[in-house]
Predict the 3D structure of the following.
Amino acid sequence: MTKLTAAIVGPGNIGTDLLVKLLRSEHVEVHSMVGVDPASDGLARARDLGVPASAGGVDWLLAQDDRPDLVFEATSAKAHLANAPRYAEAGITAIDLTPAAVGPFVCPPVNLDTLSDAANLNMITCGGQATIPIVHAVSSVVPVAYAEIVASIASRSAGPGTRANIDEFTQTTARAIERVGGAARGKAIIILNPVKPPMIMRDTVFCAIPPDSDTDAITASVHRMAAEVAAYVPGYTLRAEPQFDGPRDIWNGMARVAVFLEVRGNGDFLPPWAGNLDIMTAAAARVGERLALRKVTA
Amino acid sequence: MNIPAGKIRITDSTLRDGSHAMAHRFTEGQVRGVVHALDRAGVEVIEVSHGDGLGGSSFNYGFSLEDDVKLVAAAVDEAERAKIAVLLLPGLGTVEDLKAAHGAGASVARIATHCTEADVSLQHFAAARDLGMETVGFLMLSHRVGPEELARQARIMVDGGAQCVYVVDSAGALVLGDAQARITALVDEIGGEAQVGFHGHQNLSLGVANSVLAAQNGALQVDGALCALGAGAGNSPTEVLVATFERLGIPTGVDVQGALAAADDVVKPFLHRLPFADRGAITQGYAGVYSSFLLHAERAAERYGVPAHEILQRVGEAGYVGGQEDMIIDVALQLVAERDRAGV
């Protein structure tokens, strides 16, 4: 079977975890790991795993005779903004794990099939990957006037980039809840918890729903979607059945469904409590696999 | 060490921390009434926001009756001398929310993080300084780390642009010397460049006593709320603080009779219940649980038929931090599941 080839740009924790996942793929072959620091641990780890690695940056990557079909960007929004036009010019499809949002938002079980031709796909945020499938599961049964998500992550799993620009998380996730999740209005909240041992990622999804909603249909839709996500994020589980509360005046007469999620990481490179990072790399790998399957079968 | 206390600036948080106790249902009329009375009494800073800060109106924390920015504008309009402050929790509120509040006339930005996460506030301090606002950092649940680590976090905020950093006893869990040691550590670390403040809760009835210790050890800003209106068993009552400080010879610039009248004539008539150290609130102080979880735990207790104090105890054991109100429902569901498994 022909595989698509993929480079990973950014040999940090995310890039390394993604590498471990892609090395298991039947449809994506890892082309190289690309960084800018010759002393990078991530580049050394890639070489140990038998993957070509270079500290020559995107210049090196684009100078290769056999360029990859895909590039996974695991650097920073700033770096991706600079790199994206170069990938596009070289005809390489970019799967962007940074908050740059150059291309459309993608959440694999929701809208990947509609974006097969996009040259650049943005992976939204960890909280978005965890919660937007559930918002979509509800909004595909009843209109959702408002959806709100709360993502709680272990402090140790929040890197300096996230910390320096936390508004980017709340604003990007809220937009994607609307555009991809299908809510008329979205809101996102992120909490960093330093408890020891580190807490496993938790996400809660609240949706405003009509008072006469078919709660059985919503529950069934949520369960179906949770199973779809669990197909590529094995540690993705519902903590409890969806909780329904009747209409209230303060909710503008709407009723509410609340869904409680846990995202335990696969422990590939990052520890299991870093479910927020695992779901990003797992979703990105899923996108790569689906693109490969489509190209191969097309 | 008891150093002579300088002038203490009281920030009244009736219209912010008190928003928790009011389930975020303040009306514009109530805001105007409280601001008018506090302003006349000589309170220099009045905080107005949803209990969880700007952008707090939500399913998770409760929806505001009135838009925050509208209430800020009303407060600014009503105040003749007092500055109007707003609270913002990074991860919930954003720089955009801060700009809107500033546009409505707010002039003090209070940026709050969990006591170990100060570095998520840098973006917001920078924005507040760019807007020309006075800046205050809030290290919440300060009992969760020791004095030295708390001082390191305060340093991060000051380097980011905070002009004052508060030891915030969100759980009302600091017992006298615990508060004093943290204030002293912050004064030693940042005292040359920034002020130190104290925000107390009454869950173990020590809000006022801790505030006195804070003032005697170098704090220059202290929070209170009229009638103690605030989360958990409430805040240090503003009217008790100013009366006590006056007796100690520590100037606050607030007229005691004016503060007493504001509490008795303006706030007390609209309260449905006075903050009180009941079983749930004491459990919060004892187990170190974020005070604003109290009403949420009571609601979950009613909805799921499990005791509020058991929920709060479990929340404390899990180490949940401010903002994780959704985990209260999760804990209630776990307690129900455990009860069902036990066949009770």
